[in-house]
Design a protein that fits this description.
Layout: H1 2-32, H2 37-46, H3 52-78, H4 86-103, H5 111-138, H6 142-162, E1 167-168, E2 173-174, E3 193-196, E4 199-202, H7 208-225, H8 227-237, H9 239-244, H10 249-272, H11 289-300, H12 305-322, H13 334-385
Antiparallel strand pairs: 1-2, 3-4
Helix pairs in contact: 1-2, 1-13, 2-12, 3-7, 3-10, 3-11, 3-12, 4-5, 4-6, 4-10, 4-11, 5-6, 5-10, 7-8, 7-12, 11-12, 11-13, 12-13
């Protein structure tokens, strides 16, 4: 019963943050272009449905890296770490996947994209492990380290791409990976499409969404149904008590950040192993926005892997909806402002929830103390009467 109440409380906090963010977004739409504000809000709420089944497919495609980076941030948070480095881990993993996808053409059939995906995961794990090592061995706060590594990774990737065969100078981006390294569609292109005359206009969705959902379920089981997951969470809740119980704090920190980095690395691989959708690593001084939006996904999902699936779909849904706002004479960046507002309100709702919870605990403690004092007074009175 307690778990149900806690889940409902978390869900209500997330819904409150979403509603507050959308309301603030509507006010911005009103200020920007009052005549189209209601239509603009409706367009955002319709999301992918603005373009039928193809639009829904696009939501699934954009949700794939968001779910993975949300899992990265959420997993680290569950184990007592705050992973701000998902953007850098995503880009490092993406470069490793692109390198294998464009270079290792000797790999047969489906093995090529699978090996490229694993390369992205391992590169992300290595980048995340650096954060864990600094925290475990030198007690450097993970927020500082991960932010610095984001920019080290970005500039390092730009340098490596521009000075390698992976660079397409005409488009200032990475080249396409080999056809055998592209994530397969798994038949989803036959579901999420629209017809334009005699021709089928399919969405960019591929098997990546199935991989992301599958990994979310695996992470949920790992955290909640295994001894290994219990040890990681115990270390996150109380490191001193965990050390007393025989759990290695350093190993838990390093392992947690390695897994978080690996999840973000898979996000990068799933993004950039689908070049037909237009996803390439551009040589620019810009961090991947999917890494930072993963923070919003994790916050709204309360770091629950199953909740992250739905919040990742929601953020992708309003992002795709926001891409249609230009037809109503709004700037396309306005949806990023609304997502930022939702992040802000989600953090604020968590604060309010924690304050209410602490107040409730204080009231319960006072009630117990009053009841105990009443029992003691009754016992004394009985002895006197006796």
């Amino acid at each position: 019963m307690h778990k149900i109440r806690k889940a409902l409380s978390s869900m209500s906090a997330s819904l409150l943050a979403i509603a507050a963010g959308l309301l603030a977004g509507f006010i911005i739409l009103l200020i920007s272009n009052p005549a189209n504000a209601l239509r603009g809000l409706a367009t955002i709420l319709l999301g992918g449905w603005n373009n039928g089944m193809k639009g829904v497919g696009q939501v699934l495609y954009y949700a794939t890296p968001l779910i993975m980076t949300g899992l990265s941030v959420g997993f680290a948070f569950k184990t007592g770490m705050f992973n701000i480095g998902a953007a850098g881990q995503l880009m490092v993993g993406g470069l490793a996947a692109v390198y294998v996808g464009a270079t290792w053409t000797f790999l047969p059939g489906a093995a090529h994209w699978i090996v490229a995906l694993l390369a992205g995961m391992l590169a992300g794990m290595a980048w995340g492990m650096v954060v864990g090592l600094f925290k475990a061995l030198l007690n450097v706060h993970e927020v500082i380290t991960s932010i610095m590594l984001n920019y080290i990774g970005m500039y390092g990737i730009n340098y490596l791409i521009k000075n390698s065969h992976l660079f397409d100078p005409l488009k200032n981006q990475t080249v396409n990976v080999a056809a055998s390294a592209v994530i397969p569609k798994a038949g989803l292109d036959q579901v999420f499409y629209i017809l334009k005359g005699k021709y089928q206009d399919a969405s960019a969705v591929n098997a990546g969404i199935l991989i992301a959902i599958g990994l979310a379920i695996v992470i949920y089981i790992l955290l909640n149904k295994t001894t290994f997951g219990f040890e990681l969470k115990a270390c996150g809740y109380n490191r001193h008590a965990s050390r007393y119980a025989g759990i290695s704090e350093s190993r838990a920190i390093i392992t947690s950040m390695a897994i978080a980095g690996g999840l973000a690395g898979i996000a990068g691989a799933l993004m950039y192993l689908a070049p037909a959708s237009g996803m390439h690593i551009h040589v620019a001084e810009v961090l991947a926005e999917q890494g930072f939006n993963g923070i919003a996904v994790a916050l709204l999902g309360m770091s629950n892997p199953l909740g992250i699936i739905f919040t990742g779909l929601f953020i992708a849904h309003i992002t795709v909806g926001g891409s249609y706002l230009q037809s109503l004479r709004y700037m396309k960046e306005i949806i990023e402002v609304i997502i930022g507002l939702i992040i802000y309100f989600s953090a604020f709702s968590l604060l309010v929830r924690d304050v209410i919870a602490r107040a409730g605990k204080r009231r319960a403690r006072k009630t117990r103390l009053a009841a105990r004092e009443g029992q003691d007074d009754l016992s004394i009175q009985e002895e006197v009467d006796g």
